[in-house]
Amino acid sequence: MNPIVIIGGGHAAAQLCAGLAEAGQAARVHLVCEEACEPYHRPPLSKTFLKSADQATQPHRPPNWFQEAGIHLHLGDPVVAVDRAAHTVRLRSGAVLPWERLVLATGSRARRLPALGEASLDNVISLRAADEAQRLRDRLAQAEQVTVLGGGFIGLEVACTALALGKKVRVIESAPRLLGRAVSPELSAHVLATHRAAGMEIVLSASAGGFQVEGSRLASVEVDGTRQPVDLLLLGIGAVPETALAQAAGLECADGIVVDAHMQTSDPAVLAVGDCTRFPDRRAGRPLRLESVQNANDQARTAVATLTGAPRAHDAVPWFWSDQGSLRLQMAGLVPAESTPGHKTVRRPGPNDTAFSLLHYVGDQLVCVESVNAPVDHMMSRKLLEAGRNPAPEVAADAAVPLKSLLA
Questions:
Q1: Which DSSP string do the residues of 13-36 spell out, in sequence order?
Q2: How big is the chain by its Cα radius of gyration, in Å?
Q3: Mean pLDDT value of segment 216-242
Q4: pLDDT tens string 136-147
Q5: Helix count (H) and strand count (E) of the chain?
Q6: Distance CA 39, CA 8 (A)
């Protein structure tokens, strides 16, 4: 049977396996994972997993689901080489797998800080996988103070978790605001004020350097010229797409593996899905690379359609979420750049004083909605964006008007 080899063990790979199994194609599938465990949910690693030593990773599927579905698993034995001419991959063990179609779901890796070098320091941790989360949980139990380098989603989620565990938390962000690449200035300001009010120390526009290492530990760091001790440091300075295999195989890459609307790479026999891809987006009018669970799931569904001979172009509204202490942030669509002509924002009150939504328009077109502690408005906003509805800003901002009614 013409095999499909999937490289990766994250959300995109797991969703792809599920979709192919539903289509009756499971017996063709070989899933090759670098980690020695079956795919698991990643979002809890920065939150609930850290809070209790009793918490285990949450698998994507029940025990033995992959085997019972007929999918061939290769765990803890990553692909080290792709031969496009021979249609084979070679695993670290030396095993060679043939393929008719190959899918790269290689994800992304945490960005490293060159000033710290590549050496592993006992109290410096990035967070992308379960083994790192386990290390972080163990170190958190002993730490009194946590320094988070980077004010993005993962950094702030870990910071809030550490604060809830009674730790002193300092967040150091080089940009002038938190979540600068992902949310609007208005939402960024609200997140900053909320976290500071909860007792978190946050330093913006900060220059961090002068890292002093003692033995196997980072002892201190200079922040804006002031030396500060380090008990435990989380590196949350972003991620880079994992494209090494694709580049070695001669596939087109540009800050991600370049794919078309059907998730096909520059070689139509090879697909790519998830955080590692740069894909065309109709709504943005330009290629994007997104790091989100929902994007991984949506792209996997598109890849299933391509692999099963019923291709349909990828055309999904991106949406994201982040749980940070008392804040549940949910975003649908992409926030326009501040300099976008015709961009305006209206605020819609939520069901209580801690809840609201920010609706972003470009001209008369609704392009993005950011919701805080307002899950119903988030769900309805996604439906409005998917349907291409553009309610008048003054109507959408009126909390007395249910967003659901604007879909009629």
A1: HHHHHHHHHHTT-GGGEEEEESSS
A2: 22
A3: 95
A4: 999 999 999 999
A5: 10, 26
A6: 9
**Structure-block tokens of residue 173:** 């962000």
The residues near 304 (Cβ < 8 Å, ≥ 6 apart) are: 16, 19, 20, 23
Residue 168 has pLDDT above 90, yes or no: yes
What are the CA-CA distances from residue 91 to residues 34, 82, 270, 272 (Å)? 10, 9, 17, 19
* The pLDDT of residue 115: 83
- Interatomic CA distance for residues 232 and 148, integer angstroms: 8
| Mean pLDDT (the chain, rounded) | 96
Distance, CA of 385 to CA of 27 (rounded, Å): 37
Rounded to whole angstroms, the Cα distance separating 241 from 254 reads: 10
Q: What string of DSSP letters covers 97-146? A: EE-SEEEE---EEEPP-GGG-SSPPTTEE--SSHHHHHHHHHHHHH-SEE
Full set of structural domains in the chain with CATH: 4-35+58-109+241-307 (3.50.50.60), 112-235 (3.50.50.60), 326-407 (3.30.390.30)
What global pTM score does this model have?
A: 0.95
pLDDT 10s digits, 110-135: 998 888 876 689 999 999 999 999 99
Closest CA to 390 of 366, 369, 358: 366
Would you state the structure tokens that stand for residue 121, as one six-digit string? 């320091």
Residue 190: what are its φ and ψ, rounded to 5°? -65, -40
Q: At what angle do helices 11-22 and 293-307 cross, to 10 degrees?
A: 40
Residue 140: predicted pLDDT = 96
- Other CB atoms closer than 10 Å to residue 224's CB: what's the count? 12
